[in-house]
């Protein structure tokens, strides 16, 4: 489904280029819920952002025939001066949602913002903003959802709801997840990819991957 | 759940530009004063400057009404400057949105510049209405050339803006340089004088500036008796073409790095 072709990614620094991936060709296996594991600074988030198309490798390409979401909890695209509804419409337009009104209704219902949905986002609490961002993503049908910090959204009740909706999604769609929370990973994923020293390795069985990860 | 339609690349591109354009309107004009300020500010500026020039040499400047003379200068200059500065800030402003794979910097450059174009069109309409009330006779001999020059100016500002936006992403200091370089534009671009007011031996200090050519040529196109000298339409075309090409080359080479840093 997702294919990395000869991908190199580095960050320039005063100590020379810091390589995250070096000439990696790798294909993410199909129809699996994957966890991306790795130590701090190994490049999990960078890989994640590259999969999302938010960032690009320095050389090589990443191709995919499936539609991939943006990182679920990402709230950066939400403009504080615009209302929740205007923000939703923007995201809908960018992603090519067919029926914007229906999309709006779904997001409004899911976020439980009610009439506040038509107020500027700057008047929202941080939890409400996170709910809006989460709902905008989950209300679109993607083949693959990218999840980071999904369960840190909103209050206890909304967290549960978010988790439940992701569970439902994972039946028809696939999930790629970055988290340090092993319990959460076990809930969602069945396989894992470990990123270490610029190399990617696929583990069919999640338990194997976790035991390797613990030794890192 | 919401269905997503399959779009061609061009379709995605147009959708994104439209979405960014609407977003720009909603976020910039959410206060009632915002939209009127975009119009009032240039109009009041023109009034003050044309008043000063009017005091100096009466109601006619080189066979043009002084007010119209100033309108051509100031609207073109402001159009250039606002398009340049907003497109050179577009990359930074829309950076969070590049998290969506569909949104690429060129879309936000175009959406920003399109927005400036429309704002200035409204400004021009307001000015025409004001002129009608002031009883100034409006002559527009060759509207096509005026529109072409206006659009060339826009394309030029957008291209320079793209170059600055990309270089600012790597070297933030460049933006300071742009702000500094913009300041003297008012004095070297034939805004409140014409090139024919300047002795010929000093022309080479001024006639490299495509903005000056655009302004003088537009005046000439509107009032054939204006008598613009030392300016050339092909120079304006050439300049725009070269800078536009250069900016696209730089964009193509560096845009991915620019949003990844």
UniProtKB/TrEMBL annotation, chain A:
<dbReference type="InterPro" id="IPR050683">
    <property type="entry name" value="Bact_Polysacc_Export_ATP-bd"/>
</dbReference>
<keyword id="KW-0813">Transport</keyword>
<dbReference type="InterPro" id="IPR003593">
    <property type="entry name" value="AAA+_ATPase"/>
</dbReference>
<feature type="domain" description="ABC transporter">
    <location>
        <begin position="2"/>
        <end position="216"/>
    </location>
</feature>
<dbReference type="GO" id="GO:0005524">
    <property type="term" value="F:ATP binding"/>
</dbReference>
<dbReference type="InterPro" id="IPR017871">
    <property type="entry name" value="ABC_transporter-like_CS"/>
</dbReference>
<protein>
    <submittedName>
        <fullName>ABC transporter ATP-binding protein</fullName>
    </submittedName>
</protein>
<dbReference type="Pfam" id="PF00005">
    <property type="entry name" value="ABC_tran"/>
</dbReference>
<keyword id="KW-0547">Nucleotide-binding</keyword>
<keyword id="KW-0067">ATP-binding</keyword>
<comment type="similarity">
    <text>Belongs to the ABC transporter superfamily.</text>
</comment>
<dbReference type="InterPro" id="IPR015860">
    <property type="entry name" value="ABC_transpr_TagH-like"/>
</dbReference>
<dbReference type="InterPro" id="IPR027417">
    <property type="entry name" value="P-loop_NTPase"/>
</dbReference>
<dbReference type="InterPro" id="IPR003439">
    <property type="entry name" value="ABC_transporter-like_ATP-bd"/>
</dbReference>
TrEMBL record, chain B:
<feature type="transmembrane region" description="Helical">
    <location>
        <begin position="33"/>
        <end position="52"/>
    </location>
</feature>
<feature type="domain" description="ABC transmembrane type-2">
    <location>
        <begin position="33"/>
        <end position="254"/>
    </location>
</feature>
<dbReference type="InterPro" id="IPR013525">
    <property type="entry name" value="ABC2_TM"/>
</dbReference>
<dbReference type="InterPro" id="IPR000412">
    <property type="entry name" value="ABC_2_transport"/>
</dbReference>
<protein>
    <recommendedName>
        <fullName>Transport permease protein</fullName>
    </recommendedName>
</protein>
<keyword id="KW-0812">Transmembrane</keyword>
<feature type="transmembrane region" description="Helical">
    <location>
        <begin position="64"/>
        <end position="85"/>
    </location>
</feature>
<feature type="transmembrane region" description="Helical">
    <location>
        <begin position="152"/>
        <end position="171"/>
    </location>
</feature>
<dbReference type="InterPro" id="IPR047817">
    <property type="entry name" value="ABC2_TM_bact-type"/>
</dbReference>
<feature type="transmembrane region" description="Helical">
    <location>
        <begin position="121"/>
        <end position="140"/>
    </location>
</feature>
<keyword id="KW-0997">Cell inner membrane</keyword>
<dbReference type="Pfam" id="PF01061">
    <property type="entry name" value="ABC2_membrane"/>
</dbReference>
<keyword id="KW-0813">Transport</keyword>
<comment type="similarity">
    <text>Belongs to the ABC-2 integral membrane protein family.</text>
</comment>
<feature type="transmembrane region" description="Helical">
    <location>
        <begin position="234"/>
        <end position="251"/>
    </location>
</feature>
<keyword id="KW-0472">Membrane</keyword>
<feature type="transmembrane region" description="Helical">
    <location>
        <begin position="97"/>
        <end position="115"/>
    </location>
</feature>
<keyword id="KW-1133">Transmembrane helix</keyword>
<keyword id="KW-1003">Cell membrane</keyword>
């Amino acid at each position: 489904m997702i294919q990395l072709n000869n991908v190199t990614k580095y960050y320039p620094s005063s100590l020379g280029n810091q390589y995250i991936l070096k000439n990696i060709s790798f294909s993410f296996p199909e129809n699996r819920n994957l966890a991306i594991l790795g130590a701090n600074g190994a490049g999990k988030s960078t890989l994640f952002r590259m999969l999302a198309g938010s960032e690009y490798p320095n050389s090589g390409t990443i191709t995919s025939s499936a539609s991939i979401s943006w990182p679920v909890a990402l709230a950066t695209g939400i403009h504080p001066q615009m209302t929740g509804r205007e923000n939703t419409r923007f995201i809908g337009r960018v992603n090519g949602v067919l029926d914007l009104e229906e999309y709006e209704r779904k997001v409004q219902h899911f976020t439980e913002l009610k009439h506040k949905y038509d107020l500027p986002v700057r008047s929202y609490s941080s939890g409400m903003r996170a709910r809006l961002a989460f709902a905008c993503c989950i209300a679109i049908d993607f083949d693959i959802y990218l999840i980071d910090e999904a369960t840190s959204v909103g209050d206890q009740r909304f967290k549960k709801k978010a988790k439940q909706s992701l569970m439902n999604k994972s039946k028809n769609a696939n999930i790629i997840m970055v988290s340090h929370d092993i319990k959460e990973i076990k809930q969602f994923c069945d396989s894992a990819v470990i990123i270490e020293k610029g190399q990617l390795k696929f583990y069919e069985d999640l338990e194997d991957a976790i035991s390797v990860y613990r030794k890192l | 759940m919401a269905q997503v339609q399959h779009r061609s690349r061009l379709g995605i591109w147009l959708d994104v530009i439209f979405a960014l354009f609407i977003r720009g309107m909603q976020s910039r004009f959410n206060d009632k004063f915002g939209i009127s300020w975009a119009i009032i500010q240039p109009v009041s500026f023109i009034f003050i400057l044309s008043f000063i020039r009017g005091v100096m040499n009466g109601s006619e400047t080189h066979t043009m009404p002084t007010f119209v003379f100033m309108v051509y200068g100031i609207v073109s200059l402001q159009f250039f400057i606002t398009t340049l500065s907003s497109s050179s800030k577009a990359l930074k402003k829309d950076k969070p949105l590049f998290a969506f794979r569909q949104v690429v910097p060129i879309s936000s450059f175009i959406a920003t510049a399109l927005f400036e174009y429309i704002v200035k069109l409204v400004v021009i309409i307001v000015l025409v209405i004001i002129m009608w009330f002031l009883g100034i006779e409006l002559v527009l001999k060759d509207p096509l050339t005026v529109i072409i020059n206006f659009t060339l100016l826009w394309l030029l500002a957008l291209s320079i803006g793209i170059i600055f936006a990309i270089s600012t992403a790597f070297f933030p200091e460049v933006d300071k340089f742009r702000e500094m370089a913009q300041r003297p534009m008012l004095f070297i671009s034939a805004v409140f004088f014409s090139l024919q007011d300047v002795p010929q031996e000093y022309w080479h200090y001024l006639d490299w500036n495509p903005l000056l050519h655009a302004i003088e040529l537009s005046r000439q196109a509107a009032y054939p008796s204006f008598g613009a000298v030392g300016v050339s339409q092909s120079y304006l075309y050439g300049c725009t073409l070269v800078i536009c090409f250069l900016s696209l080359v730089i964009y193509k080479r560096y845009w991915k790095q620019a949003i990844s840093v």
